Amino acid sequence: MSTVTITNHPLIQHKLSILRDKNTPSKDFRALVSEIAMLECYEATRDLQVQEIEIETPVAKCIAHNLEGKKLAFVPILRAGLGMVEGVLQLVPSARVGHIGLYRDPETLTPVEYYCKLPADISERDVIVLDPMLATGGSAIDAITQIKKRHPKSIKFMGIIAAPEGLAALEKAHPDVDIYCAAEDQRLNEIGYIVPGLGDAGDRIFGTK
Ligand code: PRP
Ligand code: URA
Fold first, then answer.
1. Looking at the chain, which runs of residues are DSSP E strands?
2. Phi and psi at residue 93, in whole multiples of 5°?
3. Are 186 and 208 in contact (CB under 8 A)?
4. What is the whole-number distance in angstroms between the Cα of residue 194 and the centre of ligand 2?
């Protein structure tokens, strides 16, 4: 069964309050999405494997640790997941980045895929899928189904705000995928928006509304 981690660190909660505020302009919104993603990524990468290496400091030789193997690939779900990429790459600059383009059909709320480009060596990498909003869960479920066809070592999902409905659907569809979010909100409204949420994440990041 998936583990769900709500990273309710005070710094994340503070930034999330500003993010939710409808008066926060796109410029600040973008910066906050990136910062929250970076802080969450610290938690989501806690179980990365390390190996011992010998190094020489200016004072003495010692055994230190570095990350083992081919490490990570981040896969943002377009568009809004793009806002999280800069922050996570600040923590893991050597990670590869794949992209999956999906949008929710406004009538049916089901995901429509329009783009998929993943790193060639994804089967040797742990994947973290990025999307700030987990609403019905349809987009995340579909993206993860596509990624699984390329057999990565493991997959995690990292969002910012999740609805209970989306968490339940994602856990049911992909019980092997651990989930990291900064908040679990109350519910979805009648048009599939998270309440209280933050509105349309893509529009707020890119200023398209
Ligand atoms: C938003 C969001 C997620 C999706 C979540 O994208 O970024 O991808 O909705 O909803 P779900 O859990 O019900 O699938 P949107 O469809 O608005 O596309 P956009 O990022 O291109 O604006
Ligand atoms: N997508 C968003 O951007 N916001 C929501 O509340 C739900 C889906």
1. 4-6, 50-56, 61-67, 72-78, 96-97, 99-104, 111-117, 126-130, 133-134, 154-158, 161-162, 178-181, 183-184, 187-188, 194-195
2. -65, -20
3. no
4. 6
**Is the CB–ligand 2 distance for residue 133 below 6 Å?**
yes
196 prior amide bond cis, ω within 30: yes
Q: Which atom of ligand 2 is nearest to the CA of 198?
A: 6
Q: Classify residue 79 by its DSSP letter.
A: T
Q: Is 118 left (phi over 0), alpha (psi -120 to 50) or beta?
A: beta
Contact between 131 and 140 (Cβ < 8 Å): yes
Whole-angstrom CA distances from 196 to 107, 119, 135, 186 are 21, 36, 12, 7
Furthest C-alpha separation in the chain: 65
Name the residues annotated as catalytic: 104, 108, 200, 203
Instruction: Please tell me the number of the ligand nearest to residue 83's CA.
Output: 1
Q: How far is the CA of 57 from the centre of ligand 2 (A)?
A: 49
For ligand 2, say whether the CB of 183 is within 6 Å of any of its atoms: no
pLDDT tens digits, 69-99 = 778 999 999 999 999 999 999 999 999 999 9
- Phi, psi at 202, each rounded to 5°: -60, -45
Q: Model confidence over 6-54: pLDDT tens digits?
A: 998 999 999 999 999 999 999 999 999 999 999 999 999 999 989 999 9
The pLDDT of 117-132, averaged and rounded, is: 96
